[in-house]
Design goal:
- The structure is a homodimer.
- By secondary structure, chain A is mainly alpha-helical.
- In chain A, 53% of the residues lie in helices and 11% in strands.
- The two termini of chain A are 34 Å apart.
- The interface between A and B is large, with 56 and 57 residues.
- The structure holds a DNA duplex.
DNA sequence: TCCTTTTATTGCAATATTACGATTAATATG
DNA sequence: CATATTAATCGTAATATTGCAATAAAAGGA
């Protein structure tokens, strides 16, 4: 025990949960917002901007990359990251689709 | 180490991350969808519907209650749960607000 | 009151996540 | 080539999450 029993749920449910998991850390939210703000991409500036150590930032970047929300290109010795707009939109669609499922009446209990 | 360093981030960032965390498990997604589908509230039917043990479901319900997404009322020996429409809308607003931050141009890298 | 039904809580094991020091890999630059 | 710069990876410690058996708590009915 201890591991999520993904096989009990549909692909869509697991997918949605994984999307939420990618956003479920304030450092990753902060990274995404920083990438949005600077539009042009940043790299190790994130390390100085947020107060976390370089390996920690690198790990969060890796997760965001796995979640396909960001992409990075090597530029000399540094790496330039930015939002993947296509996937960003995909997230937006799927998440707002989930919240649209409720045609909210008054609470029933 | 091991614990999230919440003090490095803004209230909004932590709040958004916590909202995402509430959704970051397929069982909780499934519970919410079941509550939406049956509109009227369910209780221990969730245990038979999803394949998880009763204490596990109870724990997920507790987290959803902490996240204020659902509310429960005691009805005899059983408990009736349903979506909290007000908070549901709040989540919808805040999340879609986050995704709206990107005025997506082409990718920059 | 005793029993049944239903849900919550406790305690614990397994696994996942977060964070960082130390190191490595890759690329510039002198 | 030697050295500096930047980012990724490795290893590990601390903490959090997931899941369930066992048990407790609450309420209804015999």
């Amino acid at each position: 025990m201890g591991a999520t029993k993904s096989d009990l749920f549909t692909k869509k449910q697991n997918n949605l949960a994984n999307m939420a998991k990618a956003l479920a850390h304030p450092a990753r939210i902060a990274i995404l917002q920083e990438l949005i703000k600077l539009n042009a991409c940043v790299c190790g500036d994130l390390v100085t901007e947020l107060g976390l150590a370089q390996p920690t930032i690198s790990q969060h970047l890796k997760e965001l990359k796995n979640a396909r929300l960001i992409q990075g290109t090597i530029e000399g010795t540094s790496v330039c990251y930015c939002i993947n707009p296509k996937v960003w939109n995909e997230y937006k669609q799927i998440l707002s689709g989930f919240f649209a499922e409720v045609k909210l009446k008054s609470d029933c209990c």
